[in-house]
Amino acid sequence: MSNYKFINDKGTFKLKSPENNSYMYFPLANEVGVMSSITPTLNGDCKMDQNTFLLAPVSGEDLHNNKSSRNFWVYVDGIGAWSATGVSAIQQAEVFSEDKEETELEAGVMWHKITRKSKKFGIKSEITSFVPATDEKIELMKVTITNISNKPKKITPTVAIPLYCRSADNLRDHRHVTSLLNRIETTEYGVIVNPTLTFDERGHKRNTVVYGVVASTGNGEKPIGFCPIVEEYIGEGGSFEIPKSVLLNEKFEIQKGAQREGYEAIGAIRFEDTVIEANAANTYIVAIGFGASKGDFDNAAINELNETAFDKCLEETTAYWERKINISYKTKDKQFDNWMHWVNFQPILRRIYGCSFLPHHDYGKGGRGWRDLWQDCLALLAMDPSNVRKMLLDNFGGVRIDGTNATIIGKKQGEFIADRNNIVRVWMDHGAWPFLTTKLYIEQTGDIDFLLEKQSYFKDLQVGRGTQKDNLWDLSQGNKVRTQNSEEYKGTILEHLLVQHLTAFYDVGEHNNLRLHGADWNDGLDMADEKGESVAFSSLYGGNLQDIAELLRYLKDVKKVKNIELAEELQVLLTDNVKVYDIVEEKQNILKSYCDKCKHDVKGKISSISCDELIADIEGKAKWIKEHIQKNEWITNKEGYSWYNGYYDNNARRVEGDTELGTRMMLTGQVFTIMSKTAAETQVESIIKSADNYLYDKAVGGYRLNTNFNEVKSDLGRMFGFAYGHKENGAVFSHMAIMYANALYQRGFAKEGFKAIDTIYSHCNNFEVSRIYPGIPEYINEKGRGMYHYLTGSASWLILTVVSEMFGVKGQMGNLVFVPKILLQQFDEENKVAIEINFAERMLNIVYINESKKEYGDYSVKEIYINGEEYKFNGQPAINRNLITSLDENIRHTIEIVLK
Ligand code: G1P
After folding, report:
1. Is 760 within 8 Å of 698 (Cβ atoms)?
2. 692: nearest Cα among 700, 704, 682, 683
3. CATH architecture of the domain with residue range 5-324
4. pLDDT tens-digit readout, 485-505
């Protein structure tokens, strides 16, 4: 099996025989809601949301099991029927034989082209698929059939795309009854389906979506007949792989304007027989999609169904996505640079698909979770910072005044939905992520005033950090916290951050670490709600508190802010005696007293605290957490390895270390103790040794999430029910592995950080084992296969790590600083590496020049040139923001940085 080959520097690649790999899918989508997945045989699906599937929803297993794919048949006179997508019983049966057809995939961002050659039939098909980056809700397909024999061939072409047209729920729930809702009509160009009602969890409602398939020849000729009912198309005893009407080349009798009701539908569209001369080709254009009326399909037919329009639209679509992906890298490893192009694209995909809607992601109903919302902003900050301020501000509206947050996130930015199902689940890590994103935003832009912007708090039934209900509240009072005078209460962003961190500080378990609640980052640690503790995230909250103090210091020193205004209720979290920090019960009481005060509303009174006092208070808390963890959680096992324990289980027992069932070590606790600087430098060294010994496995891409616990540890979480080496139970889970790299780089361990990234990249790039298209998957399973490709928070973290740690291109209160941590082996033949990136709305090509071939640690930045002119800096290598914003915004600027 061959690897894919990149054919340019924009990630475009070619892959031979792609269908000889299972479970592969590729995303095609646009920003008005069309979300498709497509496989090498054009299987996959196409939908707008959970209730609006045009093609039947597919999970991983359906990718080989489902016959209901996008198909295009060619009946060759004198030989028989051939599927241009390879989905016929005969072609499938030949896949492992010498008669296997020659196939090749060529794909780039949001387009997919598969070529298939049949010696037996003497024809070749080339099918290009994409979803236009316009406001049209369609997926387009161009099919070119070439006669590769030396004799003319008479062919009968047939489009055959089964139309599901309903909610994903109906796959099992009322699959048949919902077909009775179908109202099917043939038009000049195709088949449309307008179900009367929708049946799903929302109840029975009038349906407003029209689904359809329209097609024409490349020069706009209409079809000559249709066969829109599945059972007539396949014939008695037939199937989508052996459709009788095609195999026997039966005439499609139905003409435009016909109506049918109550059956499963198919866009089976017949074109006139044509003779293709030797080496000549015929082209067909197909559009599948969603409309508000039949007219939308007529318009699509007029606008899109010709080859010129198709080619133009494809070109515009490609250019559109290229504009969006505005970061690029040049290192010695060109393959890595190209692979990163796909990683750059992944956060965009996650914004479109949420965490659902690609075949492996067969859960959820679209949308993203709280954690993902914030982390996806990390990449946006690097790629499209223009709307980020508003986005961050809106997102803070999801914070509850008890420091937890809304978990049902609406479609519109800043829309959070009250939990009416009464499900209480608190993820204890949630409060820590918004700060990381906010800090990055402030550093990139210098917009420290953002901390003083005001935003409301989210309100629903849940109070007391998931422990109580506010029975005085109902939805009619709205989703915002009010004052006792019923006015909407707004606090600063700084106050929101403090609420999140201070409540967490007091929310401790028996060992005085932060309680695990329903889980932390690891969704699979969900069975220790009563006594579980997450030391891992305690350390992150601690590190954040320290960083909040730093920002406050900046507000005070540079912005001359003397006092901070906070809701009076917060005082109890600030003005206590530090001795109580050691007493679990006291802490819990303080938290309770705060939560009780804001259970239903707040007084609306503001109290003022001096910056100095506030800084001292939160620094005290940060220090306390750090020392507490250092003192109690550093473990050394009998083999002499040391690392930080990250968890306590529901029996309040320490999780990591030696046990009768083997050594237990988890990566998460290491990542955040390193990142938060809880781990001292020598401890980082010990952790690296332990992680290399217990967690590193090159065969599966590097650092595993945990060792094998050899136990279904039901007092900690469902992850232990998963087979070891899969998903949250000990797979190389990209997100945490990349955060480990990030933490190591942050602490100056560049070689070790590089190792974590390089192992995962090299593994993914080794197609023979990873069997995924370029990009980073959510995790790598025990066999080495990349799983849950594309939609993963690790992409954002990887971009962030490569840009701001590896290349060391960082914002520092709005100025651009350079702290390169590039290893000598990464510099190219000309001793250079480069990164092209947008900073302060200017496109910058930043080139590091290492002529003396020094290794990281030995070099430092000696000279900086902006567009060829030397820029003098004092001390830290940095360029003042004002200078960058004075540069012309319409051109790309080159910044050369000489290392010596
Ligand atoms: C997924 C979720 C993420 C969660 C993680 C671990 O990771 O999206 O919120 O923290 O699993 O349970 P991702 O797919 O983002 O890599």
Report:
1. no
2. 704
3. Distorted Sandwich (2.70)
4. 999 999 999 999 999 999 999
- The DSSP output letter for 222 is P
Cβ-based neighbour number of residue 9 at 10 Å: 13
Strand partners, 657: 664
Q: CA angle, corner 752, sides to 748 and 753, nearest 5?
A: 70
CB 84 within 8 A of CB 73: yes
The answer to whether 189 and 223 are in contact (CB under 8 A) is: yes
The single-letter code of the amino acid at 846 is I
**585 Cβ neighbours under 8 A, 6+ residues apart:** none
Q: Ligand 1 atom closest to Cα of 523?
A: 12
pLDDT at position 200: 80
The protein residue whose alpha carbon is closest to atom 10 in ligand 1 is: 521
Architecture of domain 340-345+633-795: Alpha/alpha barrel (1.50)
Rounded-to-integer distance, Cα 248 and Cα 322, Å? 45
Give the burial string for 713-731 (b: 16+ CB within 10 Å, else e): bebbbbbbebebbbbbbbb
For the chain, what are the domain ranges?
A: 5-324, 340-345+633-795, 384-628, 807-899
Ligand 1 centroid from CA 793, angstroms: 6
Instruction: Name the H helices within 305-411.
Output: 307-324, 334-353, 370-383, 388-396
H-type alpha helices, 41-181: 62-65, 89-93, 175-179
Distance from Cα 500 to the centre of ligand 1, integer Å: 21
| C-alpha distances out from residue 578 to 515, 573, 621, Å | 20, 11, 8
β pairing state of 80-83 and 153-163: unpaired
Residue range 217-234: mean pLDDT, rounded: 97
Task: Read off the tokens for 275.
Answer: 């003779």
CA–CA separation, 51 vs 63, rounded Å?
A: 21
What atom in ligand 1 is closest to the CA of residue 372?
A: 9
The closest alpha carbon to 644, from 672, 625, 663, belongs to: 672
Neighbours of 202 (CB within 10 A): 11
Handedness of CA 525, 528, 530, 534 (dihedral sign): negative
Ligand 1 centroid distance, CA of 794 (Å): 8
Please tell me if the CB atom of residue 407 comes closer than 6 angstroms to any atom of ligand 1: no
List b or e across 606-635, with b for residues whose CB sees 16 or more CB atoms inside 10 angstroms: eeebebeebbebbbebbbbbbebbbeebbb
Q: Which CATH class is domain 807-899?
A: mainly beta
pLDDT for 11-23, tens place per residue?
A: 999 999 999 999 9
H/E stretch holding 441 reads: helix 433-445
Predicted confidence at residue 300, as pLDDT, reads 86
Answer whether residue 197 shows pLDDT above 90.
yes
- List of residues 6+ apart from 254 with CB closer than 8 A: 186, 225, 226, 227, 228
Place of tokens 């992601």: 361
Q: Tokens for 599? A: 């259970």
Q: How far is CA 527 from CA 107, 138, 394, 477, in A?
A: 43, 43, 32, 34
What string of DSSP letters covers 403-435? Answer: S-B--EE-SSTT-EE---S-----BTTGGGHHH
SS3 content of the chain, % helix, strand, coil (to 5): 35, 30, 40
Of all protein residues, the one whose alpha carbon is nearest to atom 13 of ligand 1 is: 792
pTM (predicted TM-score): 0.97
